[in-house]
What we know:
With about 100 residues, the protein is an all-alpha fold. About 65% of the residues lie in helices and about 0% in strands. The chain has one domain.
Amino acid sequence: MRDDGTGADQAVSVSPTRLRIGIFLVFLWWIPVWLAAPVLADVFGLDSHDVLVWLIVVQTVVGLAGVLVVGRQIARIMKGIPARRMLPTVWHVLRHGTIDAAR
Length: 103
């Protein structure tokens, strides 16, 4: 990393795989899986209300896990770069898997 007077010259280690998985989990959180509750209830012979509640709970846990994973990776990125370069750097890590050439 370059030294621009802000202390941003420290090495930053970011896992692009974790960042991608976290974003995928957040996208899963946005999909309206609860619409499948009546179908799943009919297929498995369960109460549709119980299936709906479990789908919502599982989907929320998956989404929150994704937010946690993404948040940790973005926090690592922000430690090593200026704030104005955060979004381009995150995009570069998503596309290329490295943080070095995102200047």
